[in-house]
Amino acid sequence: MSVDKIPCTVCGDEILRATATKTQGLCMPCKKGTRGAPEDFDIVRQRWRRRIVPDSKTASAQFAERYAAGDMEAVWREIHGLDLREPVSEHIFKDIVECVRMTMRRVRSNIELLIPALSKLGYEFCDPEQIHVPPTDTDRAILKQLEEVCGPLPLTLRLFYEEVGSIDLRQSQGQLVKWMDHNRADASPLLLIGEEDPLVVFPVRELAAQIERKLPQLCRNYLDPPGTSRLYCCLAPDECHKANYSGGENYNVYLPEPSIDFPLVGAWLHYSEAAPNENQYPIPEYFGPSEFFVSYLRQCIRGAGFRGRTDPENSGPRQPPMWNGLQEIARELLPV
Predict the structure, then answer these.
(1) Which letter does DSSP use for residue 271 in this model?
(2) In this structure, are residues 247 and 240 in contact, taking their beta carbons and an 8 Å threshold?
(3) For residue 83, is it within any domain?
(4) Helices (DSSP H) in the chain: which residue ranges?
(5) Same domain, yes or no, for 30 and 106?
(6) Are 299 and 264 in contact (CB under 8 A)?
(7) Are strands 219-221 and 36-38 parallel, antiparallel or unpaired?
């Protein structure tokens, strides 16, 4: 006995006519939006490109000058409102690059100060060989190759790798007293500080390895137009995994990303801390609010290398660690 089938109106797969009547002529993968299709990465690159145009007579910007004069947060609020997928003059773009570079040089200066200060307090690092690895010529070559392959990296990430390198302030698991340890109630703040989201940014070679692995597998939803999907790359563990607990989503970036800065996807935040989620930052809602990478770095500097743990009640923004030892270090650091 023959079975009455018709093609799905989207993908063409055969489905039972009775099923088609219930699902508006769609097979179940198309109906549920779970059918994947290989992504055309040339179209992805075209969609996520920068538009730097020749200078005009009216082009003017003083971001770097104002930043150097101490107007850091106001400058970054303005920068975060710019979209480099819209036409931006070459003069303004160069000024933005200079400002971002100055920011990252301050971050590096602070890191070089706080690492020995933490050691002096008795803090033990998870991997002493990887605490801070400055950029090398090999790293810079990898960065250039990355942008040739996958399109632009956000300027803040690109210049972090050029000026800072990689950083791993996680606490040694032999020193950190975990929540299930019966000695926890009597533990000093030093033995708990690894739960306060220490600053970690993986080396650029790890980012390159992810891109090489994921690029051939990149897919979009069958119903979405070509160029919709981007690479989803991990930059660091989340605050739970840093302390060796099971946690949520790690800290990630979408690539290519033509913007100046980018929302650090996966960080648990209160909605009052969220980065603007406008058209230039289309983050899926199920990840919740994100904050800009520069904002995250700024808060880590204020916490002497630690962002501070999430409020379990999610009733307010994260607070920097309250331990006096860290607060004394933070007072000696440069604002970013």
Answers:
(1) G
(2) yes
(3) no
(4) 17-22, 28-32, 41-47, 63-68, 72-80, 90-121, 137-150, 155-163, 204-214, 239-242, 293-302, 324-330
(5) no
(6) no
(7) antiparallel
Report the relative pairing of strands 5-7 and 14-16 from DSSP bridges: antiparallel
Residue 213: domain span: 101-330
Asked if the structure places residue 58 within a domain, the reply is no
* pLDDT, tens only, 139-157: 999 999 999 999 999 999 9
126 DSSP assignment: S
Q: Are residues 251 and 141 in the same domain?
A: yes
Q: Is 208 helix (H, G, I), strand (E, B) or coil?
A: helix
What residue type is 332 in one-letter code?
E
Residue 82 within any structural domain of the chain? no
The closest alpha carbon to 238, from 269, 214, 212, belongs to: 269
Same domain, 17 and 139: no
Burial bucket for residue 143 (CB in 10 Å: 0-12, 13-18, 19+): buried
pLDDT tens per residue across span 59-76: 677 999 999 999 999 999
| Exposure of 145 in the CB half-sphere (CA atoms within 13 A) | 13
Query: Vertex 55, ends 50 and 57: CA angle to 5°?
Result: 140
